[in-house]
Write a structure and sequence with these properties.
Blueprint (H helix, E strand, L loop, with lengths): L2 H13 L3 H13 L25 E5 L4 H7 L11 E6 L15 E4 L11 E4 L3 H4 L27 E6 L13 H4 L8 E5 L6 H4 L11 H9 L3 E5 L2 H8 L4 E5 L20 E5 L6 H27 L7
Length: 315
Amino acid sequence: MVGMLAVDDWTQLMRQGRFGDAWKLSDAALAHPRGDPRSTPRHLQRIWNGAALAGRRVLVRCYHGLGDTIQFVRYAPMLEDALEVTFWVQPQLMQLLQGLEGVDRLLPLHDASPDIAYDVDVEIMELPHAFRTTLETIPARLPDLSAIPVDLPASAQWRVGLAWQAGDWDRARSIPFSAASRLLGVENVAYFPLLPRLAAVEAAMFPEAVPADSIMKLAGLISALDLVITVDTLVAHLAGALGVRTWLLLRTDPDWRWMLDRTDTPWYPATTLYRQTRPGDWETVIARVKHDLWSLARRGLDEKRQAAAPRVICS
């Protein structure tokens, strides 16, 4: 954007759902590049602007977080007019994204230049701008991710996954385990941590933990759950993209993609948003979530019992 003020303005517009106005700021920034383009990082240079792709080879670069890639791969089918579409993705996501609709080739991202020829390129998070996405035109069809649910023991309990730690990029999104652990102990709920590593005191609270130390293991575990409760991190995007019911816990100043003053998100239909009402106040959020979890588990247990009950056939 053009200066810090424009960055702040862009973020506020996106939070308000005014995507069209935000794209005008993006257009202005691209029209007035700063500095020597040869010394500017490639993902900040002028890139594909939505012009016709017929007969052209497209490279989609995935420079940002794993969750960002998962959220925006839904745009791949919209590149169908291109001669060839290559996604340069984080190595951890290669297996998960195999067979993705609209993608001809996956290449593992690395620090050097891509080892292919291409005519146009775009960073994956710029695709909404290139397609001039509005709230009404966000691609509703989620990607068909190749995740096989893990085989959990048969149980009438409501299976709930928890993720209370965010990534290193923004630790302020995390919830202290002392607060998150208050979600434990709801009757008829079996809990599964969705973090790659746990402290000893945390691990002791999850006797039924299943290893989730890779993207594929994490995706398989999430696919087997009834509900995921998570902070704003990879887990939120993975669960949302897999179509698993998800409760996302947000700060008062959330990332632009979650917007403001709404409990749903057009990016993930099965996701419900729980927001702080005061900065730093996770206790109130946890209390609301626990109340709703108790209600859901009660209803869910009844549903599971009915589904498991033998059918009586009258002759």
